[in-house]
Specification:
alpha+beta
Length: about 160
């Protein structure tokens, strides 16, 4: 468990890719974990995403929106390189280990952030430089996701895919 995993998002999608990403170090902006049943000591399809963007958030609707924004960028980056890519989605979220309900499909307007750029995360310049290095190590998809959180042009390209 990481220091920023108060919110976890259960993922559905390409389990082979998730399994590979779960074994990578990931970034603090977008980290996939799981794929192993610790009790039975065998692989499973329980993959979760955590993100630095949800640190300190208590509103499940805002957390859901942030998670979906990141997954949308991940899907856009994936579709740039593989036309028939199986899109990832979030089907459940946890807050401090307990299921948190949200109702984004009801068109609620009490979200605290607009559905757009997430912006630069609140961390030191050294941590941001480390994030860029981690994204480079993971590949072009993660570099694009990092760029899309702060640059409108990259954001709109990934969202259009």
């Amino acid at each position: 468990m990481t220091e920023y995993s108060d919110w976890e998002f259960f993922l559905d999608g390409d389990t082979q890719e998730f399994r590979y990403l779960a074994h990578c170090r990931g970034t603090r902006l977008f980290k996939i974990q799981g794929g192993v049943d610790e009790w039975l000591d065998c692989p499973n399809d329980d993959f979760r995403m955590t993100t630095l963007y949800c640190v300190g958030e208590t509103n499940p609707n805002v957390a859901w929106q942030v998670g979906n924004e990141l997954i949308s960028l991940f899907n856009g980056a994936s579709l740039l390189f593989k036309k028939d890519y199986r899109k990832a989605s979030i089907y459940k979220q946890l807050y401090n280990g307990h299921e948190a309900t949200s109702s984004p499909s009801q068109g609620r307007q009490d979200f605290l952030i607009p559905p757009a750029l997430l912006g630069s995360p609140e961390c030191s310049p050294d941590q941001l430089a480390e994030e860029v290095c981690q994204a480079k190590a993971l590949g072009i998809k993660f570099q694009l996701i990092n760029l899309a959180t702060e640059n409108k042009d990259v954001y709109f390209i990934l969202r259009a895919c």
